[in-house]
Specification:
Chain A: Keywords: 4Fe-4S, Electron transport, Iron, Iron-sulfur, Metal-binding, Repeat, Transport. The complex is a heterodimer of chains A (477) and B (237). In chain A, 50% of the residues lie in helices and 11% in strands. By secondary structure, chain A is an alpha/beta fold. The longest helix of chain A has 23 residues, at 19-41. Chain B folds into two domains: 2-37, no CATH class; 46-224, 3-Layer(aba) Sandwich (Rossmann fold). The chains are: A alpha/beta (477), B alpha/beta (237).
């Protein structure tokens, strides 16, 4: 997929002016925040489970090589196969080899973010294979030629009337007079259309929420049932997963399941949590003939042992973006690649480079809501700060910004000089602002004044006011 | 290609976590110990209640998840409960089910039901399965794959009826895992284990929750017998 993260600022300007998008984004706040809170409040052990979930992932990451080895051995013992993929290109080639051998024409797909990360759909189409997204949200955006704007609600940027228009345009063999004004009828129509596709598929592709080392199992957590039909009815099941999905045991998985659905949708448990181990067995009357796992690294092993290692605990629940004021304002597409919101702002620079994604860690108010709701207690703001530092160190910002920051740093390190300069500057600014007491324009500050006026200082500095208020005790050093 | 990638990935991980030969043995022991001892972690209090309360919690949670639940005294009452459900929902008197001995033993002769067996071909409106167990803490059903209860019966029909022994309702997921391990062996699972909590749904259009996305629109649970009786229960923790 085309990366537009470098034009993040232009993307946001467009997003803020997009009336349909702004209408759709209202559903993020109303749809998720209260439900998560209610689910968290209803489970007294919720915060203790978060601590334990974090500890489990930390243990797993510290022993990841060994858990991967144990996992691979179990998958092979159950008749499946694990393919290691270094990067996106490698993963696509592995998939194509399987598809060619199976003479695949159609591939049904449950929801998988790794598929987005490796750009599988466009690649399959180039090779004459038809990918069919079966998750309702993914199906809608496939019709629209778009990418997900949210990791668990991929079509959250689309309104009902837009879906209706897309369905009328695509499902041309259906009665044009049919009533599609209610979401229910849209859902039924998608259900009927997709129902025929599952059994026709040569390959069913799913992601994985977890890979369990103890049993060689892939786990998907869904509400619709499309992922299950995809992996059950396709003749060959291919799981796309990245290396940090490893879990030691079934019990460990149960711990994290308790925080996953609650954090994501506010459900205590998603409708379908499905454990798949290998292909169809002798005693089975249904199930796939082949079971493959494409295990993707794509830069993750290089995050281990660095200040970004904590990000590998992420279980992709979406809580951080659901609670992010920046995401609420600009939506997921502005971030310009696969992963939006706070988790995307940290992960994207790791995976595609801070030179391309440097704007994302800057798109934060540092309000800290993301970290406060993260079920895996990932210090997202801290890692965004790490990226800002790295961006500065590698001279990626414009010269004016660097000079300004260096100048500010010079004064900030010299408090006495700082206060002297400021005590002259404040009355001067007050004078310049005149009676309106605000600036409509300021040199070097157009990024601020383009959108709002800059209020003028009152004349005194904070420290002066504080000292005079009687609380300061003249302690101004 | 893949084998050398495997080595490269594992090597990078080992270097990153500082896995030196000196403490490699301790790391391996830690992993082997966790995989064999399978520690339970934090188990919510809410499921740790006497059998009758546990069943009541299961029914409550399943109902919150939009499943419907009825109770019968014994297997002999199941055919009539199914016929009643189909009638109340204006459904054809036909069900698709598997070869589970408990299901093949049911006597449907007193009803007008047409019963066919095997996996679903997508044309069945109503299916019948037997659950391995239930989880009270979330109102979840546990079903396993095989000829007895083909997995497609859980997903393709629009109406899914599941029978569940009251005695098989556990307090928490850990108890169910212990039972699976006891039945299938350490480190072994059936091809598919389905944890099902209510009927299929989607909120992908404007975050409006709608039932019946790709899986069943309705999930009906028939609970048999009294809690705490019948099937032997493994100790949860």
């Amino acid at each position: 997929m085309q990366i537009t993260s470098p034009t993040f600022k232009a993307n946001t300007v467009k997003a803020l002016a997009d009336v349909d998008l702004q209408r759709a984004l209202r559903h993020v706040e109303t749809g998720f925040i209260g439900k998560r809170q209610k689910a968290a409040d209803a489970l007294p052990e919720f915060d203790a489970l978060r601590d334990n979930a974090k500890a489990i992932k930390e243990h797993t990451l510290q022993h990841l090589d060994l858990y991967i080895e144990a996992y691979v051995a179990k998958v092979e013992a159950s008749g499946g196969k694990v393919h290691f993929a270094e990067d996106a290109d490698h993963a696509r080639r592995i998939f194509l080899d399987i598809a060619k051998r199976r003479k695949a024409k159609t591939v049904t797909k449950g929801k998988t973010m790794i598929s987005e990360e490796i750009g599988l759909n466009a690649f399959l189409e180039e090779h004459g294979i038809t990918p069919v997204e079966t998750d309702l949200g993914e199906y809608i955006i496939q019709l629209r030629g778009e990418h997900p704007s949210h990791i668990i609600a991929p079509a959250i940027h689309v309104n009902r009337d837009q879906v209706e228009a897309d369905f009328r345009k695509t499902h041309v063999d259906l009665d044009p007079q049919r009533d599609l004004t209610r979401p229910e009828t849209l859902l039924s129509e998608a259900r009927e259309i997709l129902r025929r596709k599952y059994g026709e598929a040569d390959i069913g592709v799913t992601g994985a929420n977890f890979l369990i080392a103890e049993t060689g199992t892939s786990v998907i957590v869904t509400n619709e049932g499309n992922g299950d039909l995809t992996q059950l009815l396709g003749k060959c099941h291919v799981v796309l997963a990245s290396i940090e999905k490893l879990m030691p045991t079934l019990e460990d998985t149960a711990q994290i399941l308790r925080v996953l659905a609650r954090s994501a949708t506010g459900q205590e448990m998603s409708v379908y949590t499905t454990l798949s181990t290998g292909p169809k067995r002798a005693e089975d009357e249904d199930g796939p003939d082949e079971y493959h796992v494409i295990l993707l690294d794509n830069g993750r092993s290089n995050m281990l042992g660095t200040e970004f290692e904590d990000m590998l605990r992420c279980i992709r629940c979406g809580a951080c973006m659901n609670h992010c004021p920046v995401y609420h304002a600009v939506g997921g597409h502005s971030y310009g690649w696969v992963y939006p919101g706070p988790m995307g702002a940290v992960l994207t620079p790791s995976l595609i480079g801070v030179d391309k994604a440097g704007h994302l860690p800057n798109a934060s108010t540092f309000c800290g809501r993301c970290e406060s709701v993260c079920p895996m207690r990932i210090p997202l703001p801290k890692m965004m700060r790490h990226w800002r530092e790295k961006e500065f160190e590698s001279h990626l910002q414009p010269q004016a910004v660097r000079t300004g920051l260096n100048l500010w740093a010079y004064f900030a390190r010299r408090p006495k000089l700082y206060r002297t300069v400021v005590s002259f500057a404040m009355p001067l600014l007050k004078l310049l602002a005149g009676r309106k007491r605000r600036f409509r324009m300021l040199p070097l500050a157009s990024g601020w004044t383009k959108w709002r006026d800059m209020p003028a200082p009152e004349g005194r500095t904070f420290m002066q006011a504080y000292a005079q208020s009687g609380h300061g005790h003249g302690d101004e050093r | 290609m893949s084998a050398s990638t495997r080595d490269a990935v594992l090597k990078r991980i080992r270097r990153a976590v500082g896995a030196t030969p000196a403490h490699d043995r301790a790391r391996r022991e830690a992993v082997a110990e966790r995989l064999s001892r399978t520690p339970a972690g934090i188990v919510p209090e809410r499921g740790q209640v006497p059998p009758a309360e546990r069943l009541a919690l299961f029914v409550d949670k399943a109902t919150v998840a939009a499943a419907t639940v009825t109770r019968v005294e014994n297997d002999a009452a199941i055919p009539d409960a199914i016929a009643t459900y189909l009638r109340e929902h204006n459904l054809p008197a036909a069900i698709k089910t598997g070869h589970d001995p408990r299901l093949t033993a049911l006597d449907f002769s007193a009803t007008a039901l047409r019963v066919s067996r095997g996996p679903s071909d997508g044309d069945d409106l109503t299916s019948l399965s037997r659950a391995d167990g239930g989880i009270a803490e979330t109102g979840t059903l546990v079903l396993t794959s095989g000829r007895d209860n083909p997995t497609s019966l859980n997903f393709l029909p629009e109406y899914h009826i599941v029978i569940l022994d009251a005695a098989d309702v556990a307090g928490d997921m850990e108890a169910v895992i212990a039972k699976l391990r006891q039945r299938h062996g350490q480190g072994e699972l059936p091809r598919s284990v389905n944890f099902i909590t209510g009927p299929s749904r989607s909120a992908d259009i404007e975050q409006t929750m709608l039932l019946g996305a790709h899986g069943p629109r309705s999930l009906h649970i028939i609970v048999i017998g009294e809690p705490g009786l019948g099937a032997a229960k493994p100790k949860p923790h």
